[in-house]
Amino acid sequence: MRHPLLKELAIMEALRSRPSGMLTYVLRNILAGADRSLTTRQVHAKLRLLECEGRVQKVPSCSARDHAWAVKEPAPIPVRDRYYLTRCEHCGWRGSSEQCPVYRGWDDADVGCPACHQSFLCDEIGEGA
Ligand SMILES: [Zn+2]
């Protein structure tokens, strides 16, 4: 049975607050607050599920008895010099402008979306966007 305090959003938020890793029982204490019905075992089971989905990962901890958990962030998109990170407003594709087809007009060049070919990309977006 799923415990009502085992909310994915709350788990991810708590883990994000400590990128170096958080022990299972520490996460349990944060989630549970004064509620004693939530057990570390339940939290661990939920973390194992999230691990299978690739959302969290085990990281080494200072405790010999337990490993810590951290959010598994998606790998950054590599962008080489001369190119920039861009996003398609139409389909949501994002990647390096290196991968985009260039359509040359009479006075300018437009960069197209390699996924949907429906829109031109012109905005440079930051890594965190
Ligand atoms: Zn697109």
Index terms:
2 domains; binds zinc ion; three-stranded antiparallel sheet; 129 residues; single chain; 3 helices; alpha+beta; Arc Repressor Mutant, subunit A
How would you describe this protein?
This protein is an alpha+beta fold and 129 residues long. The chain has two domains: 8-71, Arc Repressor Mutant, subunit A (Orthogonal Bundle), CATH 1.10.10; 74-129, no CATH class. The chain has three helices and eight strands. The protein has helices at residues 8-16, 24-32, 40-52; strands at 22-23, 56-59, 68-71, 85-87, 94-96, 102-104, 109-112, 120-121. A three-stranded antiparallel sheet has the order 1-3-2. A three-stranded antiparallel sheet has the order 6-7-8, with no helix packed on it. It has a two-stranded antiparallel ribbon with strand order 4-5. Helix 2 crosses helix 3. The longest helix has 13 residues, at 40-52. The model has no long low-confidence stretch (mean pLDDT 85). The structure holds zinc ion (ZN). Zinc ion (ZN) is lined by residues 88, 90-91, 93, 113, 115-116, 118-119.
Topology diagram in text:
Elements (H helix, E strand, L loop, with lengths): L7 H9 L5 E2 H9 L7 H13 L3 E4 L8 E4 L13 E3 L6 E3 L5 E3 L4 E4 L7 E2 L8
Antiparallel strand pairs: 1-3, 2-3, 4-5, 6-7, 7-8
Bound molecules: zinc ion.
The site of zinc ion has 9 residues, from loops.
Q: In short, what is this structure?
A:
This protein has 129 residues and is an alpha+beta fold.
Return the domain count: 2
Average pLDDT level: 85
Label the overall shape. Answer: elongated
Radius of gyration over alpha carbons? 21 Å
Oligomer: single chain
Helix content: 10-25%
Strand order of the largest sheet: 1-3-2
Strand content: 15-25%
Terminal Cα separation, in Å? 37 Å
Q: What profile does the largest beta sheet have?
A: 3 strands, antiparallel
Instruction: Please report the first level of CATH classification, the CATH class of the largest domain.
Output: Mainly Alpha
Q: What CATH architecture label of the largest domain applies?
A: Orthogonal Bundle
Number of strands: 8
Order of helices and strands: HEHHEEEEEEE
List of distinct ligands in this structure: zinc ion
Structural class: alpha+beta
Low-pLDDT residue spans: none
Question: How many alpha or pi helices?
Answer: 3
